[in-house]
Design goal:
It is a single chain. This protein has a single domain, classed as Ubiquitin-like (UB roll) (Roll), CATH 3.10.20. Helix content is about 15%, strand content about 20%. It is built from 2 helices and 5 strands, in the order ββαβαββ. β1 and β2 form a beta hairpin.
């Protein structure tokens, strides 16, 4: 089961494979915006994956298109609602939405 570390707080949570980063972050008690409820319509759950990116499910075209509309994204950018965890531990950085 992968461990998700959330920065800047340093909180960690162990979740089942197949869990989205959004669900993992919320289950840790952290706050993160997710206005569209995981429908890839808003981009508010944008995070930077600092470690373990290759362990996430491959990015789908809808996520890639949404990230293209967000200023300041880079190769570490993902939408938490679309990032499905595999067996690899992941470290994510929240963008000012941490509690």
């Amino acid at each position: 089961m992968p461990i998700v570390t959330i920065k800047p707080s340093g909180k960690t949570v162990t979740v089942a494979e197949g869990t989205t980063l959004l669900d993992a972050i919320l289950s840790s008690g952290e706050q993160i915006q997710h206005k569209c409820g995981g429908k890839v319509e808003c981009g508010t759950c944008h995070v930077f994956v600092q470690e373990g990116r290759k362990g996430l499910a491959k990015m789908k075209p809808a996520e890639n298109a949404m990230l293209d509309t967000i200023v300041g994204v880079g190769s570490k950018s993902r939408l938490a609602c679309q990032s499905i965890l595999g067996a690899t531990d992941v470290t994510v950085e929240l963008l000012g939405f941490a509690s």
